[in-house]
Amino acid sequence: MMSKRWLILLAGCCTAIIAGGQTPAIYNSADIYLQLKKLKVLGTVLYVAAHPDDENNSLLPYLAKEKLYRTAYLSLTRGEGGQNLIGSEQGVELGLIRTQELLAARRVDGAEQYFSRAYEFGFSKHAEEALHLWDSDKVLGDIVWTIRKLQPDVIITRFPGDARAGHGHHAASSILANQAFKAAADSTRFPEQFKLDPALKPWQAKRILWNTYNFGNINTTAGDQLQMEVGAYDPLLGVSAGDLGGEARSMHKSQGEGRPWRKGKLYEYFATTGGEAPQHELMDGVATDWTRVSGGDKIQAQIDAIIAHYQFTSPEASVPALVALYKQMLKILRPNSDAIVRQKIDEVKELILHCAGLYMEATTQQETVLSSDTVVVNCFVNKRNNANALIYGIWVNNNVQDTVLQQSLETNQNYNYPIKITPGNMVALSSQPYWLLKQRQKEGMFEVPDERLIGKAWNDAAFNAVFKLEIEGVSFFVTVPVQYKYTDPTKGELYQPFIMAPHMELYLSPDVALLNVKDQHGKQLADSMIHVVYRPNFSAHAVPATLYVMQNKVHTIFQDQPSDLEKGKRYVVDVPIKQVYDSAKGRYIEGAIEIQLGNKKMTFPNFFKSIEYPHIPNMHYFFRDHVKFVNEEVKVVGKKIAYIPGSGDAIPDALIQMGFEVKQLSDADITSENLKQFDAIITGVRAYNLHEYLSNKYDVLMHYVEQGGNLIVQYVRNMQVGSNKAKVGPYAFAISTGSRVTEEEAPVHFLLPEHPVLNYPNKITDADFAGWVQERSTYQADQPDAHYEAPLGMHDQNEKESNGSLITAKYGKGNFAYVSLVLFRQLPAGVPGAYRLLANLIALPKNK
Fold it and tell me: Residues of the signal sequence (predicted)?
């Protein structure tokens, strides 16, 4: 049984390793020295904006690593409505990627990361739309919750609360942050938060500032604003804040935000929007040392002495003094102590471990585990410096190590303690990102069942090892996440999250099924089957299995069929659509598989999806997969389509559903002879911004059009490819980066009703623009040459008509089309009109 003394210390356990999927943190002597200096600084800054990549990547490292303030970034959304330059993920999946990219950036710049429950529903021109589609009161509450937890002295917004913000989400983030600045100090606002976390109290920040900017096309800085130079070189870091900012910004790879390391002087400007205006520094009027804490004078003196006597070649010499400091901090800790005091206690514990050279990890040789499995967790310790330390025991998810260790740790000696665990009653959904546990009830908000989790960037690790240590006679519990560790032949030693997986997973194909595709002769081209795919995460013989497909009622495909299951193998069952789908009962069907292991029956309706990129940890989440059926008639002309990939989209899958044979082209494939076989060529979104070779293929592509082919270019962000200007169409046109139609229900006007793109082979009507998702168009064509025709007009509310969403031009015997309509969003969403319009673009008739 644990003693009372141990239990008290457990309540304030220290985490010595970065959360799942990261190499354990190791401080060098300069890192330790900077952290010692940080112990003296008690200031806290909270930076607030709307999206991942909205943060000021030069300011955050300056605040965190130069000024040594506790620094945090609160992004109201996780960036689900953005675009993806590195893969095909959109929506929630893109939000997972961008969350981890923000965490990667924070590991560079030293700040912390927080989120609200707001969902990014796409570009918004007005704050009113964002505040409406979000539950503005709940998002306000989330900001207040974060303020009360962090207790910042200064709050900084990236944007103003008006049109100068350039995006409705940007302006809304400022409006809500300024409201929260006052609301957080009012005990009558969001009083339920004090019950959720008794340590919370009303908090009034000293001031809230707007970090003004000069983005070239808009300059909001002014001479009367507070000015700070943030680009100074730090010899302890070996870099400047500008260098770190470039590295941190480059973590936003899905958004194409790679940036250089910035040298030289960098200036930041601040306008006061609430509280007392600063005259010289952000923290004017704020005590940022230990004088702000009752009993802090002695602590300040202890820290000064530790820094004065710090030995860069023997950090362990500071351990006794740090332990004494830790005990003194515990003496002044009170239930109502400010958050910064608790933060400093954690920082001291972290420093004790690093100065002692204590390296700890808990790893497995497999990435996933089932609830019925037994897995070995190897708990490893090495005390690399000559500090006085003992190990008493290790727990993994409350499973106590059988052997009472109580052994002294020798210097630079490896200690391995293998511990077997069985997850038992834990369910695989414990690995689900907490904000995805419940389905969204409102377009702009996630549902979080446990409101105490609000603000957290990511789940805590599903499995943790707790090391019971004694250092200089004081006991510590050190919590380390269990990770999957392996060695890659080309990348070396790597760590990934260790997670719970389901016994079975299931998905359906295709995502969208077209039921009424006809060729120009009226022949039906639609597939008559859907495909149910299940994959076991274990191997076993003769497992009774039952497969279901559900619409309004359950259809049993097979029942209690003994199945030999091989771990990781995909089993595909073809199901006739007529057998399971009734168009009168909706557009969707789902599936589930039930298995019996021993006397226990288990049903698995979810797909367990993994997302992997080299710059961030592997991500896993569950969702209920389905097939969406499109019953509307889609007529197609042609057979073979060439597709030049862009920044990740699912249009090739849509083309296959339309009955086309699709060939994806590389640089080498784009020759005049090879292109002759295709009825049309389609370029993916931003393809011209991604592939410099396309400019070199201009003459080949124009020759293809001239000879009678149709070239369809989906939107490009600008006409710049690397250092060169892209050549896209046969005649000149520009791209208006600010011209977009963000209201997905914006009326569409047929400016050229007789144009072939609106008539052949499908008659396009208002119905074809119903049910669109997120937006109509983006990066529209501007200033087109007179040879272009613009058959469509549209505009957002209270704006003038735009006709740049689709332009076409005849060139020789063929046709060119630039399409800024967001087909890449509509086709995966199963919007019938998007399929019909794409079919018409492909079928544009040859010219005589």
Answer: 1-21
3-state secondary structure of 51: coil
Helices (H), 155-268: 168-183, 192-196, 241-249
Whether 271 is covered by a domain: the verdict is yes
How far apart (Å, rounded) are the C-alpha atoms in residues 44 and 732? 52
Report the alpha-carbon distance of residue 55 to residue 104 in Å, rounded. 13
The rounded average pLDDT for each run of 10 residues, N- to C-terminus, in the chain (848 residues) is 32 42 86 98 98 97 98 98 91 97 98 98 90 96 99 98 94 98 98 96 98 90 96 95 96 92 95 97 97 95 98 98 97 90 96 98 96 94 96 84 76 95 78 94 93 97 94 96 96 95 96 94 86 97 96 88 95 94 92 94 96 97 96 96 90 95 96 97 93 92 98 89 78 89 95 98 98 95 97 94 97 98 96 98 95
Question: What is the rounded CA–CA span in Å between residue 144 and residue 187?
Answer: 11
How many domains is the chain built from? 3
**What does the block give as tokens for 463?**
């499995």
Angstrom distance (rounded) from CA 211 to CA 225: 10
Range of the domain at 569: 504-629
In this structure, are residues 808 and 784 in contact, taking their beta carbons and an 8 Å threshold? no
Cα separation, 169 vs 158, in Å, equals: 11
Within 10 angstroms of residue 88's Cβ, the number of other Cβ atoms is 18
List the structure tokens of 120: 């990014």
Distance of alpha carbon 165 from the chain centroid: 22
- Tell me, yes or no, whether 623 and 765 share the same domain: no
Q: How far is CA 734 from CA 10, 14, 175, 681, 686, in A?
A: 63, 56, 34, 21, 14
How far are the Cα atoms of 101, 659, 702 from residue 493, in angstroms, in the given order?
21, 46, 49
CA distances from 93 to 338, 513, 589, 620, 732 (A): 37, 22, 22, 10, 37
3-state secondary structure of 190: coil
CB 78 within 8 A of CB 116: no
CATH of residue 709's domain is 3.40.50.880
Residue 745: closest CA among 769, 764, 767, 765? 769
